UniProtKB/TrEMBL annotation, chain A:
Keyword Metal-binding included in the entry's annotation: no
Involved pathway(s): Glycolipid biosynthesis; glycosylphosphatidylinositol-anchor biosynthesis
InterPro entries per the UniProt record, alphabetical: PIG-H, PIGH-H_dom
Ranges for domain Phosphatidylinositol N-acetylglucosaminyltransferase subunit H conserved: 97-166
Family membership noted in the UniProt record: Belongs to the PIGH family.
Taxonomic lineage from the root: Eukaryota, Metazoa, Chordata, Craniata, Vertebrata
Molecular-function annotations in GO: glycosyltransferase activity
Keywords tagged on the record: Glycosyltransferase, Membrane, Transferase, Transmembrane, Transmembrane helix
One Pfam family this sequence matches: PIG-H
Organism name: Oncorhynchus mykiss (Rainbow trout)
Record GO biological process: GPI anchor biosynthetic process
Transmembrane annotation, as ranges: 49-66, 72-90
PANTHER family the UniProt entry points to: PHOSPHATIDYLINOSITOL N-ACETYLGLUCOSAMINYLTRANSFERASE SUBUNIT H
Name of protein: Phosphatidylinositol N-acetylglucosaminyltransferase subunit H
TrEMBL record, chain B:
Gene Ontology CC terms, in alphabetical order: endoplasmic reticulum; membrane
Residue segments, region Disordered: 117-158
GO term, biological process aspect, one: GPI anchor biosynthetic process
InterPro entries: PigQ/GPI1
Keyword entries, A-Z: Membrane, Transmembrane, Transmembrane helix
Name the UniProt record assigns to this protein: Phosphatidylinositol glycan anchor biosynthesis, class Q
Transmembrane segments: 312-331, 377-396, 403-430, 436-458, 479-503, 509-532
Species whose genome carries this gene: Oncorhynchus mykiss (Rainbow trout)
Gene: LOC110494404
A family per Pfam: Gpi1
Amino acid sequence: MQNGDQHYSMEDETYTDIDGKAISLECQSHSGFCREFTVSSAKVSIGRVMAYTCAVWLSAYIIFFVTENTAVLSSAIIITLVGMMVRIHFVKVDHETLLIIGSLGVQVSSSYASGRESTDFIEMGKIKDIVINEAIHMQTVIYYLCILLKDPSDPEAVSSVVPLFQSSKPRLNCLVKVYKSCQEILAKC
Amino acid sequence: MVLKIFFPQCCNKADSGLLVGRWIPGQNSAVVLAVIHYPFIPGQVKQYIHQMRGQSGVDLTVLGSWSMPKEGQEGMESFLRDLSTIFPQGQWLQLSREMGKIGFRCHVLTRDPNGKLIQQEKELKEDGGGEKGGKGGEGKKGGTKRGGGENKVEGEEGGGEKDKVIFIHYEQRKVMLSQLHPIENGVPDPQTESQLPQVFGTVCQSEPLFFLDKYDDGPVKMTHWQSEGREGSIIVELMKQASTPVCLLTTWILTLWTSLCSSRILNVRPMRFISSKLSTCVQLSYRTEHLQTVCSPTRATAHNHFMRKANIFVSFFVDVSLGLLLVSWMYRENRIGKLADTLVPAADYVAKELEELLQWLMGAPAGLKMNRALDQVLGRFFLYHIHLWISYIHLMSPFVEMILWYVGLSACLGLTFALSLLSDITALLTFHIYCFYVYGARLYCMTVYGLSSLWRLFRGKKWNVLRQRVDSCSYDLDQLFIGTLLFTILLFLLPTTALYYLVFTLLRLVVVMFQGVLHLSVDFINSFPLFAMGLRLFRSYRLAEGVKFRVLCEEPGTPLHLMMDINPLKVSSVVQTYRTPTYSCYPKDSWLALCKKLFLGELIYPWKHKTTKID
């Protein structure tokens, strides 16, 4: 950490996501009009990985014991490896970042467990506002932060909605913090 | 609004001089394209910029001055300020950088409408809440890390406007070569166009500006991405020289070929019908069109045209090389002769299997009891048909090898031709199955229609053709009697015809599936954009979906520095955007409609061959 860094990582409140798992929020202020928010989900748990692997291989051994076919074992190994690779490269999100630069735009990026990053940049001219919306999901009401995009033909209408932090799904207290910061910057520029 | 300066990475270590670039209207941004070094004559600089403006079509101006004093050089503050009088601008940027420090600094001088210079004083503030700690670049580019901080420029007491500056570093060569997607067709309105396409467009169109390198003896000395020496490749230049005569020759050959194809002899009705059914002929006409596109002597100007030409050329090349490989493999050790030798026995085998199937149907198939007389009639009819077919095949058998040998040579034209040929050979060899299917389907269809109509009569109703609905009708007694008789006959004959229909439809579907797979693979080879895929994999910056920003590590007291990287297009978007349009074979009916047709006995043509191209 550099001196005088505007870097909030240890908070008094602990944040959780809508399922109750612990997440962490990190805010960095690079400049008066440029801020970065990172929401990190829980990492891949080694216990769960081992449990799944053992379950799959045990069942494969049992089937092999019954059928005496070695293809079962090799297919179990291949399935486990491929499944793990697919999960950490395409499914498991490690952290999601929101970088807001006043009068330039907003950059949303997700970083997966294998290190792959997928980024999207939205120009300020297309952004109407950043708001917290409610949604009804099964039997619960959840809140999510989203960016409203302008319709090119009608400046007053909203053409589409880009939801943020879709994998980490933080709760309202976390969203409010991010929302307030973003609104400060949007108001300035 | 914050002032955004797009600064090329190649000019980070450039000597002091003038900044040349473009102001983007309405966005309060400036794109720096090059730095003109001292010593220069202002008149020559103005002339050069005017010339470049005409050549490139970009609104180039002198944006300001750049100062990076070397050791021993004095600061040129007053000299730089005086320069702004020589090049009158609305806003004059004074960028400076000190050796050993990584941050840039920026003064902005504005002129009020009278032309008088208002100097805005710069104040470096190091707030407690000052901007620090960029997320360091993860060494992706290994770029130098620069300081960043807020640069507050305060105006006079009355104004109080806080101008802020962001430096956005970009790699000039990559931005110049890249193409932003989605591609706008037509000329966009410069007022409403968003910032990034304008930046990309400016750099791309300023190509003439980058032709002058440091070895040229010109009036101005510049630094830009090509100033170390112009890039070129001997192979590309040689190919450019060779391409024109080759293109002209190929175009001439193609015009000959198309005129031959459209001549009167070959355009008789039966020939046209046959050639539209044979997929080889269709593929041939298709490839001719492709070649005409590629070999047209005019240069492709728009990005789309260029990509299409390149894709067609590369896929044609790959197709032909795969075809040649296949031909060389098949003709070695006379494999083609062996293949021809197995064709007639294969046809024999198929015929024998069909005969056995018919014998089975004529007996008690699957334990069902058929109507004996109808069964025998249909069975004998089909058996005779097979006998005729086998005789024709045996008649042709001495010529098969020779025909196959010569026709197989046409696979040199490409793998797609080999596959279409295979599909055509299958169609010809299984023609009797197609005939059986048509007979069975027609018979079944007639039975079903007759049954439904007589069933209505049985209930005392009639189909009203005018109103397209079922109405009640009073029949005479003899009508009812005959109708009921016929209904009973047809009803008891239905299982036999239905069984024959079922068996032959299944056989036909098997053949259709096989042909469908071949057509799909031909279509895939035709339409897959190999060149665009190659670009995406090896030069991913050329196809850009957007940009991504990275905050560069900052020094306190300098403005915010960002690094702009190119976000490459997703692989699925590449395929979708650059697919060559083809005559796609898509199923004409949905599954439900297909089942309905099968049930009613209507003839099905599951693969719709579009004559017009679809995208």
